[in-house]
Amino acid sequence: MPTLLPDPARGRAFVRPGFRWDAADAYLFDIDGTLLNSRDAVHYFAFRSAALQILGIEASMDGVPVHGNTDMGILRAVLQRAGMDNIAIDAHMPQIVAHMCAEVQQNQEQMHPELCPSIVDMISHLQAQNKLLGAASGNLETVGWLKLEKAGIRPAFAFGSFSFPRESRADIFQHGVGLARQRLGNKASVTVVGDTPSDIEAARAVGIPAIILATGIFGFDELAAHNPDACFGCATDLLAGGGELPSKVR
To answer: Which residue segment(s) compose the domain that 66 sits in?
Structure first.
């Protein structure tokens, strides 16, 4: 495995030879850890409230992977641990989802998402080139759009693909690719922008490139080791490269 080195002039950057980050027709952006980070607990409390109010379960997400997961995936793992089988979970899922969305809407004034570095500049760069932008997130749709609205970037995204009824990240990306190609044609090229190994794996499963920003909980070296098409410390490093960068290996 090559060791990825930081470029002092550009920050931390690794790009597959021949890959140009801004050459696609459309871009699917993950939300949490990629576009923004939420320091409030509105989303978290909605999980707990839904489980308690709908099922009478005091749900705990301790030990359940959440980064790179989907809201449906998290709910299923929590409820399985509480003793529910998949048939019962699936039967209650629409009601749970509706409660979560209503709870987040009710408490939206407490939401204070913080944009990741240079995200607005990255979006502006792509918009200036008439790229189609969409959200592709493990959030429930209402939750995802509210986060983008609260962060002030909702108008940048023409469409979105979210959790429920889609549960896997690959299905969310596949749906997003389909939405993009409905607008641009079947031959349109689509690239994912994410922040987790799960984004890399899901993009690979769907057959599209992945640009990864180390602005979530995963570090640059850990993410780059999964061999995405491009990996940057943040969007500031990406923009400093101006497109294709030489890979830095030893």
So the answer is: 42-110
